[in-house]
Amino acid sequence: MASFLPKGPLQTIERHxxxxxKFYPEATGTLTGLLYDLALAGKIISSHIxxxxxxxxxxxxxxxxxxxxxxxxxxxxxxRTIYRLNDHTGRxxxxxxxxxxxxxxxxxxxxxxxxxxxxxPLDGSSNIDSNVSVGTIFSIYRRVTTAGPGTLEDVLQxxxxxxxxxxxxxxxxxxLVYSTGYGVHGFTLDPMIGEFLLSxxxxxxxxxxxxYSVNQSNEIYWSDGVQRFTRYxxxxxxxxxxxxxxxxxxxxADFHRNLLQGGIFYYPADLKDPKKPSGKLRLLxxxxxxxxxxxxxxxxxxxxxxxxLDIQPQALHQRVPLFIGNRSLVAKAEEFxxxxxxx
Length: 343
Ligand code: AHG
Ligand code: MN
Ligand code: MN
Prior knowledge:
Order of helices and strands: HHEEHEEEEHEEEEEHEHEHEEH
Shape: globular
CATH class of the largest domain: Alpha Beta
Helix content: 25-40%
CATH superfamily of the largest domain: Fructose-1,6-Bisphosphatase, subunit A, domain 1
Number of strands: 15
Bound molecules: 2,5-anhydro-1,6-di-O-phosphono-D-glucitol, manganese (II) ion
Strand content: 15-25%
Low-confidence stretches: none
Structural class: alpha+beta
Number of domains: 2
Distance between the termini: 57 Å
């Protein structure tokens, strides 16, 4: 198999991350090292996922995670990989994962660092058995406490405090997309040489949206405002040319497509399901990191009433409704909710 190399200047993710460091004159290289290790985690998880069908590691372990969902073996593998790459480096004060009920401390024998890493090790994992794209979502914050082991306070920060965030998508190819607040950049893994190469520099969400992405089977449980907004995106209102529907059920993949093609992804509150009064997606592990990416690509993310990045989290596994994608569409969703739904 020939190695695929993009046209134009070749840049590895390592060089790119290092070059981004120049935007931070006070940088010590710690964040750079942390991002390198996340890229390495992506390579390890990617190679494992590609062997999934062969290695009899498909299927569930039979355990339930803190969200009451079935834990897949690959979820565990991704969780362990990210943890093992980061527990001993002295860069982190603690971690938090969608798969763990509490904050994950750094073992006492290792130095405590100044950053906090939050992640969803494998998003969309219920799709693994069907060979559908899954992803890893991550975000990095500066700790707010000054010394000792990291605490809940270090983890419960608004998304506006994010230093860097991104995702790795394990799809027809593996890509890493990240931002440190200076644009959004995408890298494609060349499996032959084991490097992420810059393939999508400075991603901007196209102005003209193409898709709306939502699990419409839940529509009867949505508020009046969300139902009317859905009619709007379908083109049944005000002469707006309707969008086409695309829904994978794997948020990283749905988000990634809409980031490149233009559109909106939403997971609204479910008014009748007592398990989903705030939708399904987790503020800290899924919504805030992708909101940071969306905004840095010229898009926007809201819970329907306020900017996702302004929400002060109250709990580690807090869920919020999410509307994310083209700014004009997300603002339109807010307008419908403001007009038709009374808080
Ligand atoms: P996870 O696999 O990390 O639990 O997250 C799955 C999420 C997200 O990826 C996706 O958008 C959503 O669940 C799909 O939910 P529905 O099946 O309710 O549409
Ligand atoms: Mn998830
Ligand atoms: Mn997950």
